[in-house]
Amino acid sequence: MSSKDVPDVLIVGAGASGGVAAKHLAEQGFSVVVLEQGDWVNQSDLPGLRPEYELLGGGPWHPNPNVRQRPEDYPLNLDDSSAVIGMFNGVGGSTVLYASCWCRAKPSDFRVRTLDGVADDWPVSYEELEPYYRQVEYDLGVSGQAGNPAYPPGYAPPLPSLPINMAGRVMAEGMNKLGWHWWPGYNSIASQDHLHQKKCERYGVCMYGCPQGAKGSVDVALFPDALARGARIETGARVARITLDENGLANGAVYFQDGEEKFQAAKLVMVGANGIGTPRLLLMSESARFPTGLANSSGLVGKRFMTHPFGTSVGLYENDLEDWVGPTGEAIESMQFYETDASRGFVRGSKWHIIPSAGRPLGMINRFTLGEGGVAEEPFWGPAFTDRMKSSVGHLIEWMIMPEDLPEEHNRITLDPSMTDSDGLPAAKVAYTTGDNTKRLVDWNLQRSLEAHEAAGASKAWITSRNNPSWHNMGTAKMGDDPETSVVDRWGRSHDVPNLYVIDGSVFPTATGVNPTATICALAKRAATHIVETRREQEVSTA
Amino acid sequence: MSAVEVRLEPFGGVVLSAAQRERLALLADVVVAGGAGMPSASGAEVHTQWIDRVIAVRADLAEAVSRVLVLEGDPDEVLAGVRAGDPELFSGFAFAVAGAYLINPRVRRELGYPGPAPMKSPALPGEAEAYLEDGILDVVIARGPIYRPTPGI
Ligand SMILES: Cc1cc2nc3c(=O)[nH]c(=O)nc-3n(C[C@H](O)[C@H](O)[C@H](O)COP(=O)(O)OP(=O)(O)OC[C@H]3O[C@@H](n4cnc5c(N)ncnc54)[C@H](O)[C@@H]3O)c2cc1C
Ligand code: SF4
To answer: Which domain of life is it from (chain B) (predicted)?
Structure first.
């Protein structure tokens, strides 16, 4: 193969970060190949408009690959994890199922060591990332309200806010009584037709995949542009290892497709395989030069895994709130308790948001049968069942309490010694224990959320769950300036391999207290922009 | 607990015999007895119709149903025993029954849902603004910034 036949860039993973990078680079004239282990998702196959949507969402469309068990999924050994972990594997990655809560991190998130004396500052600031947030917000059709005092001035989403719906309104009145911050939610869901996204019709089944094409899932919003500019996606292509030339530069990847081993050459490799899939791939790419895993001279690949083990509380309300009306992103959010206040007994804080509850009536079961404060002990089945359902469906508001999660090296991804995927590659083993700070933070915020329910007029309120699976996977290839204490530099470029970039949530030095995809996409956009701007100096493999 | 003796065949084929459906009606009514103006599980055709939809898409729930169906005895006592001795099996069975019950369009209507499956509910022109037009956000804005600024750090 002559070097002109070798694509400029190989991207592993067609998820959020891969989509952002593929679109940007293809539009800038780079030749791009994306290797994705899953397939395209056909909108007509999505379960959301079928009567049994909730049952399908708990089975073949579950975010946990161990439940889904599709051939393209790699299993996870969760024996040593206090949190359930998951993602979606296919074109669009986890954005196919994501709730589209679009949350910029806040300035303090990038400076936690300086401000709070914990973990590490990021090598990037909010101000540096802000232009990239803005660009991806346009590309992914983010709807929201300008002027939020929880952010520096100038944050104005490209599309008008979606309605906060009745549940949002009732809770907003309660928050005002308490003098607590709230704001209409931000969602990467189009409130009007926008680029490839259609206007949201509020089916409320966003987490089963959007049948309308309104959600900013990257298969809908970004890949069509990348393909139109010549990018190529190989589906069913599971990367087994990234390869190096004799100079230690990345020169492509070995992958399996239909059981056949193949090789894709490239001048530069970007990995956007998710906070679990990326460390798994780097660890699988061990070599004589990198015996403990590719780009792992720091020893940190796979370590510092963070997720957001969030909590929930609910309140029962007399009025019919019709809380099945979508979207199932954020109706409203609150940043009242986001910043550190040492008197609370923990550092950092939490973003709260309200998500429509009645779209998942089966979800009521756990809300009652696992409810705290004596609710679980109350009768639920038998004669009580219909009464419970009638009093809650459409009459319940749910707060989700998203906690900051701090990095700890013992929380880590390794290769499982025995479990394998359908190509015989090792499964990822997750070791994760929810930290004490995170537990205290969730508990304190849950108690406050009960006060919010009371102020909003709930006849009864209780804590429904803790330690929920957030499906947010972060921290396993830390970004930093010092090669001894980080895997990639401030651009996402490996300290060890100068033409290897990591662009997904693996690079997060801390988890932030918000849903991560806005920041993942902004960082991927920034990395891709950097690659374009520095292309003349970029070392590439010629072998 | 007795071993699995009945295999329910998901994804088509004969799912339940008439006798099994009769037995399921009795057991399912222990889980969803009805009231508050709503039918019991059997009154909502869980055993004759809707359970098939559950079994077709969830092999794990089909297994729970099959394991409970083989248990003989008074339905109340059987399920009390399962609940005490194998809470996970009880959860699976109860979830299957509730899942079948809640996809019956009549039940959904009783609960206030606009349709038998999620429906379009497009925002009316001006709806987003209507929730805010009385100035409900003004106090939030008036309190001023609540983020910790970091420039220069
Ligand atoms: C149910 C659910 C709800 C969520 N809700 C929200 C939300 O509201 N807001 C929010 O911010 N975030 C949310 N998230 C998280 C969000 O989806 C992820 O943060 C985001 O998609 C991560 O982007 P990524 O590029 O890192 O990885 P992904 O989007 O997960 O994509 C990674 C891709 O890489 C592929 N891949 C992995 N390994 C290989 C390999 N070896 N070879 C080939 N391909 C490979 C995978 O198949 C996958 O398609 C949610 C996630 C889920 C599952
Ligand atoms: S509510 Fe909107 S984004 Fe969600 S599934 Fe429906 S149309 Fe799609």
So the answer is: Bacteria
| Binned average pLDDT, 10 residues per bin, chain A of 543 residues | 82 99 98 98 95 96 96 97 96 98 98 97 97 98 98 97 98 98 98 98 96 98 98 98 97 98 98 98 98 98 98 97 94 98 97 92 97 98 97 97 98 98 98 97 98 98 96 98 98 98 98 98 98 96 79
The answer to whether B24 and B93 have CB atoms below 8 angstroms apart is no
Beta bridge partners of A243: A252
Whole-number CA gyration radius for chain A: 22
Cis geometry, peptide bond prior to residue A327 (ω within 30 degrees of 0): yes
Q: Where are the beta strands (DSSP E) in A18-145?
A: 32-35, 76-81
Tell me the whole-structure pTM to 2 decimals. 0.97
Structure tokens at B140: 């939030």
Atom of ligand 1 nearest to the CA of A515: 11
Pairwise CA distance, residues B146 & A394, whole Å: 33
Residue tagged 């709807």 (tokens): A143
Q: Which residues of B touch A326 (CB under 8 A)?
A: 118, 121
Interface size between A and B, measured as CB pairs under 8 A: 188
ipTM above 0.85, yes or no: yes
Separation in Å, CA of B19 to nearest CA in chain A: 23
Q: Is A227 exposed, middle or buried (0-12, 13-18, 19+ CB in 10 A)?
A: middle
In chain A, the domains with their CATH numbers are: 3-358+394-533 (3.50.50.60)
Contact B121 A165 (CB under 8 A): no
Q: Phi and psi (nearest 5°) for A463?
A: -85, 130
What's the residue count for chain B?
A: 153
Nearest CA-CA partner of A195 in A158, A233, A232, A144: A158
Q: Which residues of A touch B58 (CB under 8 A)?
A: 55, 58-59
Which residues does a 6 A CB cutoff place in the pocket of ligand 2? A 189, 200-206, 210, 212, 214-215, 326-328
Burial label for B36, CB within 10 Å (0-12, 13-18, 19+), is: middle
Ligand 2 atom nearest A204 alpha carbon: 1
